TrEMBL record:
Gene3D superfamilies: 3.30.70.100. Coiled coil: none annotated. PROSITE patterns: ABM. This is Antibiotic biosynthesis monooxygenase. The keyword Oxidoreductase applies. Keywords: Monooxygenase, Oxidoreductase. The lineage of its organism: Bacteria, Pseudomonadati, Bacteroidota, Chitinophagia, Chitinophagales. It comes from Chitinophaga qingshengii.
Length: 100
């Protein structure tokens, strides 16, 4: 059953250029993952430093594969220096206990 991740990220305005570059690189490799259907992101036009990620995976295995990638771990580590607060992350699926 398909899985979605919706994340709202809050980035220091001084770090948005570095964040943008790293996020685009992450999107390129994530879209090549076998379980990824789509991986898109948008800058919020009325909120400087706020970005929305929308991730779509074929199934639980595809999402779990994404979470195991070293490039994702590297990106998350960099996020600690860029963020002004923790992201708001929502996992969506019609399947109960989809991520357990």
């Amino acid at each position: 059953m398909e899985k979605f991740v919706i994340a709202k990220l809050f980035i220091k305005t001084s770090a948005t250029a570095d964040f943008h570059h790293a996020l685009e690189a992450l999107a390129v490799v994530t879209r090549k993952e076998p379980g990824c259907i789509s991986y898109t992101w948008y800058a919020e036009p009325l909120e400087a430093g706020v970005f929305m990620l929308i991730e779509h995976y074929r199934d639980k295995a595809g999402l779990q594969h994404h979470f195991r990638q070293t490039y994702l771990a590297d990106f998350i580590k960099k996020m600690d220096t860029w963020k002004i607060k923790d992201p708001e992350v929502h996992f969506l699926s019609a399947e109960p206990d989809a991520l357990k």
